[in-house]
Amino acid sequence: MEGPRSPRETELPQVLDFLNKKLRNEASWSIAAEYPTAFSSNNLHNMRIIADEGHVLSHAVLKPLIIKSPHVIYKVGAIGSVVTEDQHRGQGLSTQVMTDCLKSASEQSCDIAILWTDLFDFYRRMGFELAGSEISFVIEDNFDVPPVNLRFSTDSKVAPDAIYRLYSTHSVNSVRTIEETRKFLAIPQTKVYTAWEPNGQLAAYAIEGKGVDLGGYIHEWGGSVSKLMALFSFIRAQKNQPYTIICPRHAKNLINELRRKPVTVNEGYLGMIKLVNFDQLAAKIKRAFRAEGIADIVLEKHPNHFVFGIGQDLFTINNETDMVRLLFGPVDYRAMDLFKEETIQKLEKILPLAMWIWGWDSI
Ligand SMILES: CC(C)(COP(=O)(O)OP(=O)(O)OC[C@H]1O[C@@H](n2cnc3c(N)ncnc32)[C@H](O)[C@@H]1OP(=O)(O)O)[C@@H](O)C(=O)NCCC(=O)NCCS
């Protein structure tokens, strides 16, 4: 048995074959079509396998993302397609592969790692915790919006640069190219809904589905709130059945509008997050506080605990996973009853950090 190591270019078809058998048995497309930026030959150095006599036994892939937000630019290592051959499970292979992915994430200066799973306890052993916020709205019924002069379309042949232009206006997004946007638009089972101005400019877009995942879920969208609401109303009428819109917590205006409509609201987590380079992230956060005029922010890692607070109003945190929630939420500093009101007001200028990963970036 050898590895964990990156597959050689000549081994990529074999790795994809392994993943397709294990994770996409029912699908008529390759997993590479679903994650075009993760399973490309220029991301081979971020794939990890354990192999034996030419057979892949265990795999995981890392996709580093640069996420821009109003206060902090993060480097995030998204990890996915974690799988071990059935007869070789329980031998520590996935743990080894994951440990190597996390080492690589750390060496590439990622602040955090993130993954999406329902095996919470498996990843908690490795220091991941459910964190960050996601608000989803099930659009139960048709709803009206004030009249708008827009043309709606379900044609998926949309120029990637038009989508990219609206995507770029988000306050929190990953650094992408137009070429990547073109690849994402070609993912199997993708439905594209668009709203167009009379002059032919794209006013809003919404993306549903991503390979075997996210059918019935709008996981990417863009445009002004009023145009998006008109598009969401069109989608409900078009589908003639409920569907779900996924939103970051900081999309406050859109969330306020959606709450007024016939919706069911669910508050969830962005994903499972692990701190990878705490000191680097802490330096970014402290810089963000200083830019707000708060120079006495304390965010320190000691051998067995963290110290967090402002000035003399400090709090000791013993678990790294508690620290993840204090930084990325969900957290209500007021309800915790730990800090003085003055401290809470200062903390809330930056924390919880605005963090979001749009659906096309999840792996
Ligand atoms: C989950 C999976 C990747 C684990 O692979 P593996 O190589 O068997 O994992 P390891 O041997 O490194 O770790 C196994 C350990 O995790 C534990 N574990 C496995 N699945 C678990 C789960 N669902 N919840 C909690 N612990 C779990 C085992 O009990 C074992 O613990 P031990 O070391 O104390 O005995 C593997 O079962 C698999 O391929 N499943 C199908 C694909 C899948 O669901 N992938 C996850 C997608 S996010």
TrEMBL record:
Domain N-acetyltransferase residues, every copy: 2-155
UniProt xrefs under InterPro entries: Acetyltransferase_Eis, Acyl_CoA_acyltransferase, GNAT_dom
CDD domains in alphabetical order: NAT_SF
Protein known as: GNAT family N-acetyltransferase
Species of origin: Bdellovibrio reynosensis
